[in-house]
Amino acid sequence: MNVKEIIAKRVAKELKDGDVVNLGIGLPTMVANYIPEGMDVTFQSENGFVGLGQAPEEGQEDKDLVNAGGQPVTVVPGAAFFDSSVSFGIIRGGHVDATVLGALQVDEKGNLANWMVPGKMVPGMGGAMDLVVGAKKVIISMTHTQKGKPKILKVCNLPLTAAGQVNMIITEMGVMQVTDKGIVLTELNPEYTVEDVKNATEAVFVVAEDLKEMEI
Amino acid sequence: MRNKVVTIEEAMHHIKDGMTIMIGGFMAAGTPEKFMDALVKKGVKDLTIIGNDGGWPNKGIGKLVCNKQVKKLIASHVGLNPEVGSQMNSGELETELVPQGTLAERIRAGGNGLGGILTPTGVGTIVEEGKEKITVDGKVYILEKPLKADIALVGASIGDKKGNLYYNKATKNFNPLMATAAELVIAGAEKIVEVGEIDSNDVMTPGLFVDYIVEV
């Protein structure tokens, strides 16, 4: 398993039967591949439907059915379409159980920066700001560092996507919970030591008394 | 019955330099693409465009940006059209980036006679800068003002001669919202049918919102 597969597989274990989930573009999209058979998880696509399915087979694309990245997708039986107001009513109104997103930076207070790098990359926030504010649980799934540079910081210095909304950070090194008292390392990938995680993290974190082996 | 069915040339006749135009669709799904081509051909300029995104370089709103007809773009995501970023950097294009759910609700407010909406999205981020914040029952919200336009260009799958519209699958997105929020609403329908052929239960935009309809 490569790093992204490890992360996606661990994120999938956070989802429960009956959950409505919105997955961000990129690594988070891979989470759908690891939902156990028989478990009913409904994926929302913020451009206007629930019941997002797999990518279509080549030649089976439908121009009227794309995901939030504009890529052709399919829907599962029981899917429902709606307009953007209803779509974000679902998101902001607390009807999404979990959202899984990538990050440029996360900090000790659960602040998230994932939408712009001033002067370099200004793609716009799309639906990310609404998702992070509205979803019941915000899971950040990302590689622990950016080529060795920590992304889990004391304080984010890039423009925020939302303040204090992140609940959980899942990386190839382990699992962290963001609590009122700061970040707690709750699971560790046995390939790494706590010292390795400390070296790759700028934020101060507490190691849980019952630190577990990362479930992969 | 007033005849709403017009040719694309007749419809585009209403669009003038400097106008504010809402364009439906999401990464070009649900965007009336032939209207984009007609606007490029017509060469109207200094437009303020309100839409979900900056499209692709050769598709959707992107065509107007690449042809330098847009003075200001109000959108949630522009990252998939590099031309938007380069015109932003060179100062040719002004952009207002709006969280996607906020964009939907501002348009809905514009079309529904509301003075704005209160949203938690963007609190604690640069989105709140310069905006009034209102606390309701202890929770902080940003007052986001309504958006209206001179023209809305919406893309429908089926329209009838009264202007009743049906949108297939994920093409609904911003279209039904925009159809309520402009002085003049022009629908591009893939198919125009006789009145009564769209079951009244399936009408997603009642014809009263639509001024002209073009088969595209």
Automatic annotation (TrEMBL), chain A:
Database matches in PROSITE patterns: COA_TRANSF_2
Transferase in keyword set: yes
SMART domains listed in its UniProt record: CoA_trans (SM00882)
One Pfam family this sequence matches: CoA_trans
Family matches, as InterPro entries: 3-oxoacid_CoA-transf_B, CoA_trans_fam_I, CoA_transf_AS, NagB/RpiA_transferase-like
SUPFAM superfamilies: NagB/RpiA/CoA transferase-like
Keyword Nucleotide-binding recorded: no
GO MF terms, alphabetically ordered: CoA-transferase activity
Keywords, comma-separated and alphabetical: Transferase
Family the UniProt entry places it in: Belongs to the 3-oxoacid CoA-transferase subunit B family.
Protein's name in the database: Acetate CoA/acetoacetate CoA-transferase beta subunit
Source organism of the structure: Marinisporobacter balticus
TrEMBL record, chain B:
UniProt keyword annotation of Transferase present: yes
GO molecular-function term, one example from the UniProt record: CoA-transferase activity
InterPro entries documented for this protein: 3-oxoacid_CoA-transf_A, CoA_trans_fam_I, CoA_transf_BS, NagB/RpiA_transferase-like
Keywords annotated in UniProt: Transferase
Name of a matching Pfam family: CoA_trans
Gene3D superfamilies: Glutaconate Coenzyme A-transferase
Family: Belongs to the 3-oxoacid CoA-transferase subunit A family.
The protein's name: Butyryl-CoA:acetoacetate CoA-transferase alpha subunit
Species in which this protein is naturally found: Marinisporobacter balticus
Organismal lineage: Bacteria, Bacillati, Bacillota, Clostridia, Peptostreptococcales
